[in-house]
Design a protein that fits this description.
This protein is mainly α. Helices cover about 45% and strands about 5% of the residues. It contains 13 helices and 4 strands. The strands form 2 sheets. Strands 1-2 form a two-stranded antiparallel ribbon. A hairpin with a 4-residue loop joins strand 1 and strand 2. The radius of gyration is 21 Å and the shape is globular.
Length: about 375
């Protein structure tokens, strides 16, 4: 039966704009998750389970980003990866509250961030209190003291009206179905654009989009890989969804196939403690480093390489797919450069005693640090 009431996305122009937002949303998660993992001192040798979990989520988010780009290309748009590059801190808003996405060190706050970003709708009551993090965004003080306005003024990768990432992607799916029902498949999807898409993620996984059915299937897959579907934690490939992977890290225990949501009973995970984590300054930004200092130079080297990686992604997702594989191959060098930043101890000024962290900024750099509300006492 044809849909009669237009969904939130009901024009081709709106669909293209929201798919660009989807690309930005997926991009926003990648440095946030990577930067926290990078602060673990012996991440690969001493904490292989944490490494595997975080890297699996990051690789999956890169796949989601490529899917959003392919669907956008298939409906006649052009992915703008450089434009989508996030500036931190930023917000991922939902219908009732705004949530900060920050560059955090590894630890409980990072796991809470992952739980917040990937949260299902409705949110399991078992974790509602655990994901609030250091800033309680529902507190009366923030709402009356202007703190919430500060958060809402931060850049945001998706519009305010969606309650979760899954809700956002369901709106995209509804929009696609509506547009196809209102006209013809060929008015919305252009199969010839397949030659400009990055069609095989990692060389094998076919994520090319020619039709609305392929687009809907892939966007549904993103929902299942992120928050899980309403009735299960595992996707069709037997992979735990992102939300529950972060719940494993938050609870320090693996899920078994028979476990109930929020109640893992598998083997305990070896998690890093404070002495295993670099004491990185809060919310690293280039303007917090003295220009010309060792930490500024190391962070600038990192950012220049990061810019080239982003440029390769844009080239790869807009007609030269081999460049995507080149960008993925650059991730190891990005890790090496990040370690050079994290080795720099700040010796003077407001942040003396902290270690520098990668800022994932594209030039030109801002002159003033972002002002955030103070946490509750």
């Amino acid at each position: 039966m044809a849909q009669t009431d237009p969904p939130p996305i009901h024009t081709i122009e709106a669909l293209r704009a929201e798919l660009q937002d989807a690309l930005a949303l997926e991009f926003t998660t990648i440095p946030a998750y990577l930067s926290g993992w990078l602060t673990i001192k012996d991440r690969r040798t001493r904490f292989p389970d944490v490494t595997r979990i975080v890297q699996s989520v990051v690789i999956s988010e890169m796949r989601h980003m490529a899917i959003a780009a392919n669907v956008l290309t298939a409906v006649g748009g052009r992915p703008e990866v450089t434009k989508a590059a996030p500036t931190y801190p930023c917000q991922i808003p939902d219908f009732t509250r705004a949530g900060l996405v920050r560059l955090l060190p590894c630890g409980d706050d990072l796991w809470r961030l992952g739980l917040f970003i990937e949260q299902p709708d409705p949110l399991p009551t078992d974790t509602r209190e655990r994901i609030r993090g250091a800033i309680d965004l529902e507190s009366p003080r923030l709402r009356t003291g202007g703190g919430l306005d500060l958060i809402k003024a931060l850049p945001s990768p998706i519009p305010l009206r969606f309650e979760s990432i899954g809700d956002f992607y369901n709106a995209l799916i509804d929009g696609i179905r509506y547009l196809v029902e209102q006209g013809k498949e060929e008015d919305v999807f252009h199969p010839e654009t397949i030659t400009r898409q990055y069609t095989h993620f990692g060389g094998q996984d076919n994520i090319g989009v020619r039709t609305s059915a392929e687009a809907v299937a892939l966007l549904t897959d993103i929902i299942h890989e992120g928050e899980g579907d309403p009735h299960r934690m595992w996707d069709d490939n037997g992979e735990l969804s992102h939300y529950y992977k972060f719940d494993e890290l938050a609870q320090g225990r693996r899920y078994l196939p028979q476990d109930k949501p929020c109640h893992p009973t598998g083997p305990r995970l070896t998690l890093p403690v404070d002495t295993d984590i670099v004491r990185v300054l809060p919310d690293p930004q280039m303007c917090k480093y003295r220009k010309g200092s060792p930490e500024w130079r190391a962070a600038d080297d990192f950012n220049r390489f990061y810019e080239r990686l982003v440029a390769n992604l844009e080239t790869g997702l807009t007609g030269h797919p081999q460049q995507v594989d080149s960008a993925v191959g650059q991730m190891h060098q990005l890790e090496v450069l990040a370690d050079e930043v994290l080795a720099c101890r700040i010796t003077e000024g407001e942040y003396a005693g902290y270690y520098a962290g990668p800022t994932f900024e594209c030039r030109p750099y801002t002159d003033q640090p972002v002002r955030l509300p103070e946490p509750e006492a």
